[in-house]
Specification:
Elements lengths: L13 E3 L4 E5 L5 E6 L3 E7 L4 E7 L17 H14 L7 E7 L15 H15 L4 E6 L5 E6 L5 E5 L2 H4 L10 H10 L5 H11 L5 H10 L1 H14 L10 H8 L1 H17 L12 H20 L4 H10 L2 H12 L1 H10 L4 H9 L3 H11 L4 H9 L10 H17 L13 H7 L7 H7 L9 H6 L4
Parallel strand pairs: 1-3, 6-7
Antiparallel strand pairs: 2-5, 3-8, 4-5, 4-6, 8-9
Helix pairs in contact: 1-2, 5-6, 5-9, 7-9, 8-9, 10-11, 10-17, 11-16, 11-17, 12-15, 13-14, 15-16, 16-17, 17-18
Bound molecules: fe (ii) ion (2 copies).
One fe (ii) ion binds next to loops.
Length: 462
């Protein structure tokens, strides 16, 4: 593993290169970082010109003609653009040197699952294209099962690959393992999701969603009403007339989207209570929640067996328990880090062992207190072992799959460890052909990392 070699790296401003994008610059005080699960990261640097950049490719090549095509997402179409941008910034192709990382395996690669070796194929395309341009790769670490972080120091051109989250593990903390009572008390102290959102969640879950009731609830909460209008206006800024009332918003975005805006706006605040434990970047848990909600909804549409809006809600809320445990994980981070990354333990087993409580259990306690619908409670309580859900295992399975897709293809939002073994079987049990996986990944909003609620919720719909 290459050395960081420069202590200044710790103080450089960071720039996350999100899934499906690249960044080019030179001789500036900036550390580029890409968190990589199954995606491939490529850092290129021209020493003479002091120009370089980092690209983060999600898939080997464009999936279906006519999909939300963003060429930067794919190695085949993104790499030529990345090279053009480097040349435009003053680099010369024959002086570029590369570092490549990522490509973690999605599932058990049995002979029949070779189509799932998405990371491997993305890496292959990058290697072939670089070889044809005569650009050497000086260092590469691909494959494996863990999330890593590819860094490029734009001041010095140094590239490094390290396990994701390791920089936080250096933190000197006096580890205090909380008692079970302290964990329970933390759950009781937490600022809950606003009442209006909880009520809406319950109403939406009824078979007959009554918009009048929902509108009445939203109106009772001035903050949420204002935030809803603000989100609608900024998401649809192209509209000539500003959206000034809930009725207007409803006519403009439709009932489903409006409900989603209200709930997601309410959750933003809830997730903001956490930050130093599980989250590997600012707002990581919230963005993970949004991505899991959108992905679960999309899976529900493909599967045809689950109401998409129920899947969305369950996906959005699956990790609420992490907000409760966050402060304890932060105080014992090195222990968590070693256990999850080095020993390869499941995150929830590590939580049980160190805190005596898993985020699934902490989440279920919150969900019960808030009287969330049983189907959502079960998805929260069983999303890592969905077959054990007593009443609605099919919803829990979709949330598990969505969680997994986010973990692999939008890595770096949270400290997590998930096993792959049952991924393919679960896709099949949900009635989804594993061969559709690239299409599913392609439909996940590419800008979850940098997304504000309005772009993540309302923009780039699958
Ligand atoms: Fe989880
Ligand atoms: Fe999760």
């Amino acid at each position: 593993m290459p050395h960081l070699g420069n202590n200044r790296i710790g103080v450089l401003p960071r720039h996350h290169v999100a899934s499906g994008s690249f960044y080019v610059g030179g001789a500036e005080q900036r550390l580029l970082q890409a968190f990589l699960g199954t995606c491939i990261g490529l850092a290129l640097w021209d020493r003479r010109a002091s120009v370089g950049g980092l690209a983060h490719f999600i898939l080997p090549e464009p999936v279906v003609p006519g999909s939300t095509y963003q060429p930067e997402k794919y190695a085949a179409t993104g790499l030529p653009r990345f090279l053009d941008a480097l040349v435009a910034a003053g680099a010369q192709k024959d002086r570029l040197v590369g570092t490549m990382a990522g490509g973690a395996l999605v599932g058990p690669v049995r002979q029949q699952d070779l189509s799932l070796d998405i990371g491997g194929r993305t890496a292959e395309i990058v290697q072939t294209q670089l070889a044809s341009q005569g650009i050497p790769i000086q260092h590469s670490e691909t494959g494996g099962f863990f999330t890593c972080c590819l860094n490029l120091n734009l001041e010095t051109g140094e590239a490094s690959i390290e396990p994701a989250g390791i920089e936080k593990s250096d933190r000197q903390t006096s580890v205090q393992i909380p008692s079970r009572e302290e964990v329970i008390a933390a759950g009781e102290k937490i600022k809950p999701i606003p009442q209006v959102a909880l009520k809406i969640l319950r109403i939406v879950n009824d078979d007959q969603t009554d918009w009048q009731k929902i509108a009445a609830e939203i109106r009772k909460d001035q903050v949420i009403s204002a935030r809803t209008l603000q989100l609608c206006n900024s998401a649809f800024h192209a509209s000539k007339t500003p959206i000034t009332s809930l009725e207007h918003a409803l006519a403009f975005v439709g009932q489903n989207l409006l409900v989603r805006v209200v709930i997601s706006a309410a959750l933003d605040d809830f997730f903001n209570q956490s930050g130093k434990g599980y989250s590997l970047c600012k707002g990581g848990l919230f963005h993970h929640a949004l991505g899991a909600g959108i992905t679960a909804e999309m899976l529900a549409r493909r599967s045809g067996r689950v109401d998409p809006s129920v899947a969305y809600t369950a996906g959005l809320l699956h990790d609420i328990g992490k907000v409760v445990l966050d402060q304890f994980v932060a105080s014992a981070y090195p222990l968590f880090y070693r256990s999850v990354r080095e020993d390869g333990d499941h995150m929830k087993n590590t939580e049980k062992r160190i805190l005596g409580y898993s985020h699934e259990e902490a989440g279920l306690a919150l969900a019960r207190r808030w009287e969330l619908p049983l189907v959502v409670q079960e998805a929260i309580a069983h999303h890592h072992n969905p077959e054990s859900a007593g009443h609605f295992p099919e919803v829990a399975v979709l949330v598990n799959l969505a969680d997994h897709i986010m973990f692999r293809f939008n890595a770096g939002l949270e400290l997590e460890s998930m096993r792959n073994e049952r991924f393919v079987d679960r896709l099949q049990s949900a009635g989804i052909d594993a061969g559709q996986l690239p299409q599913l990944i392609d439909a996940v909003p590419a800008d979850i990392f940098g997304a504000t609620p309005e772009t993540a919720i309302l923009g780039r719909r699958p």
